[in-house]
Write a structure and sequence with these properties.
It is built from 4 helices and 23 strands. With 372 residues, it is α+β, with helices and mostly antiparallel strands. Among the domains are: 93 residues, conserved putative lor/sdh protein from methanococcus maripaludis s2 fold; 85 residues, Efflux pump adaptor protein, beta barrel domain (Elongation Factor Tu (Ef-tu), domain 3, Beta Barrel); 75 residues, Helix Hairpins (Orthogonal Bundle), CATH 1.10.287. Strands 1, 17, 18, 19, 22 and 23 form a 6-stranded mixed beta sheet that branches. It has a 6-stranded antiparallel beta barrel with strand order 3-11-14-13-12-15. The protein has a 4-stranded antiparallel beta sheet with strand order 2-16-21-20, with no helix packed on it. A hairpin with a 5-residue loop joins strand 18 and strand 19. The C terminus is likely disordered.
Length: 372
């Protein structure tokens, strides 16, 4: 009888102990579950995105014509245009004082007439001895001398005429004309200056064409093509649409920058020497991307919070690219399919336990081996 009572007492104790142990295990599990923070998540996805590369540069004339005088020693009598003026090809820009030249032309003209008179006389003398060779009337030496004098006089006429023509050419060049149509960018001549071939009097932007000379990193040049459209922003905030005209075949060995020339439409705000910013657009291609809400910024740079297979958070540094339609391209970061925390990830530390929740109660397909 005592043994039966003892057995009953032991059974009751075991049942009580087992219940307590089971309850303790449930409490631990519940505690762990309650410690996990619910976080909205998304996946790294492949998304077609157009790349945008920003660069800066200077506004320069497409072609700049330097205008000066071919003559030396003549005083500038008149300057007809100021900087910023529009001129046409062949239009007079400045006029030199031709008083000295006119005196030389008169003198050279008189020299031509004198030479012609001497040539006529020499030719007449040569004509008189025609047919007298071997007759003995005049010696052969005298006959040949007259004929030689006639040829020399004729040559002297041609020399005098050439000198006169040269002076007339100089006379035409006393007027400094525009070699191209365009805008005068610089005027460095004043009335009273002495002309010199080494002096640049005017600088003209041909056809008013101003373009952007942008400096582009070497690794970006491969993504730019001739005729690509470019958005150019001037210092005033004005935006213009340009087109890539030329890509330099050379990269600076020191800076690793190449040059790209962007053709711009005519605009009164375009000034040579000014600064502008350009955005080059690349054709849309599939790239790794995440929602903008997943990106966090710290002193070390942008990062995202990755949710691993065991539902733990891990902060990962990334390199971002283009942005469009609420997504950000990831140039360096986790692979496609990785779960990342959205806005609530800013409060997570490495190793924190989380409970992934799809935004808007939509189910997100987890990577292989992971369940939500």
């Amino acid at each position: 009888m005592n043994s039966q009572l003892w057995a009953l007492a032991m059974s009751a104790a075991l049942m009580l102990f087992g219940g307590c142990s089971k309850k303790s295990a449930l409490d631990v599990t519940a505690s762990k579950t309650s410690d996990a923070r619910s976080v909205s998540v998304a996946q790294v996805v492949l998304r077609p995105m157009a790349g945008i590369f920003a660069a800066s540069g200077l506004l320069i004339p497409r072609e700049e014509a330097a205008v000066g005088s071919e003559l030396s020693g003549y005083k500038v009598a008149n300057v007809l245009f100021e900087e910023g003026a529009l001129v046409k090809k062949g239009e007079p820009l400045a006029i030199l004082d031709s008083a000295l030249l006119q005196a030389k032309i008169i003198q050279a003209g008189a020299g031509v007439e004198q030479s012609k008179a001497q040539a006529a006389q020499a030719r007449s003398e040569a004509d008189r001895v025609a047919g007298l060779d071997g007759t003995g009337i005049l010696s052969d030496e005298q006959i040949n001398s007259r004929r030689s004098q006639s040829k020399t006089a004729n040559a002297a006429v041609k020399v005098a005429e050439a000198q006169l023509n040269d002076l007339h050419t100089q006379e035409r060049r006393m007027v400094i004309r525009a070699p191209v149509s365009g805008t005068i960018l610089q005027r460095s001549v004043r009335p009273g200056d002495i002309a010199s071939p080494s002096q640049v009097m005017f600088r003209i932007a041909r056809d008013e064409l101003i373009e952007l000379d942008a400096e582009i990193p070497e690794y970006v040049l491969a993504n730019i093509s001739v005729n690509n459209k470019v958005t150019v922003t001037l210092s005033s905030g004005t935006e213009l649409t340009g087109i890539v005209r030329l890509i330099s075949p050379r990269v600076d060995p020191q800076t690793k920058l190449g040059r790209v020339r962007v053709r711009l439409p005519q605009n009164s705000e375009l000034r040579a020497g000014g600064y502008a910013r350009a955005e080059f657009t690349r054709a849309a291609i599939p790239v790794s991307a995440v929602p903008e809400k997943a990106i966090q910024f710290e002193a070390s740079g942008p990062l995202i919070v990755v949710i691993d297979k065991s539902n733990h958070a891990q902060r990962v540094s990334i390199k971002t690219g283009a942005r469009t339609d609420g997504f950000v391209a990831i140039e360096q970061g986790p692979p496609v399919g990785t779960l990342v925390a959205l806005g609530g990830g800013a409060f997570l530390l490495d190793g924190d336990s989380v409970e992934p929740v799809a935004p808007n109660t939509k189910t997100i397909e987890a990577p292989p081996g992971k369940k939500l």
